[in-house]
Amino acid sequence: xxxxxxxxxxxxxxxxxxxxxxxxxxxxxxxxxxxxxxxxxxxxxxxxxxxxxxxxxxxxxxxxxxxxxxxxxxxxxxxxxxxxxxxxxxxxxxxxxxxxxxxxxxxxxxxxxxxxxxxxxxxxxxxxxxxxxxxxxxxxxxxxxxxxxxxxxxxxxxxxxxxxxxxxxxxxxxxxxxxxxxxxxxxxxxxxxxxxxxxxxxxxxxxxxxxxxxxxxxxxxxxxxxxxxxxxxxxxxxxxxxxxxxxxxxxxxxxxxxxxxxxxxxxxxxxxxxxxxxxxxxxxxxxxxxxxxxxxxxxxxxxxxxxxxxxxxxxxx
Length: 317
Hints:
The protein is of the alpha/beta class. The chain is built from 14 helices and 9 strands. Strands 1, 2, 3, 4, 5, 6, 7, 8 and 9 form a 9-stranded mixed sheet that branches.
């Protein structure tokens, strides 16, 4: 199976260099790598030299520039999908670095099952990550693979259609059949599409043997804003997120993290866990109810001001 890799970029740093270097050494080499580069004031983010360095490593390496005001999490990735002509398309972010040479092949093998519409990789906390971040990654991305279907909704809940475009491979014909990513979405384009696939009887694979280094250390304010946008995406797509609530999964994460902190002699981090969790929940709570909030408050709460500033909307106030 041939694979196209799509990577949206915005002022990339050395991690993109490392990502491309490791992609160029994969046992299953991508036939095309497409960088969807968001530009600000006609700057290319330093991609010219990087593309020149790696152009000979892939059959096709190309860059498509997008103005900042035109970027959309779903719409930009869908644009990349229209440029791809391979059976499989791997979406990655510029800060997701393959752990080894088998990332692409490990994801691709799940598509031997014709009902698998997407397969996503395991995310590992980078060196120097906090204990909280390490445990959260292991909670969301365990070391056991699983192929999920509609029959798992009762036992797995929202985890049934959990999927992350940090590193997720999509079968292009099923992608197109489902209508692709939402053309305008603040966040969660991956889970919205995965949910549609589950509803249609397709399967989502979690590939624990396909691994990328990817983690963050967010402040409480950043957590609040990201979870506000998460709540907005769920409020805008009840046809997907009414299948299962994410609140129960969030509570389970907090409880298990607290237990792990105590067992592993990190009890001093419990206040931080409580503060972070409170910020996450507050952001999510407000995001789910964004239509009741004034525009000025929404612009303070969101992590994606361009989404709101570039479009008119009615919050009912």
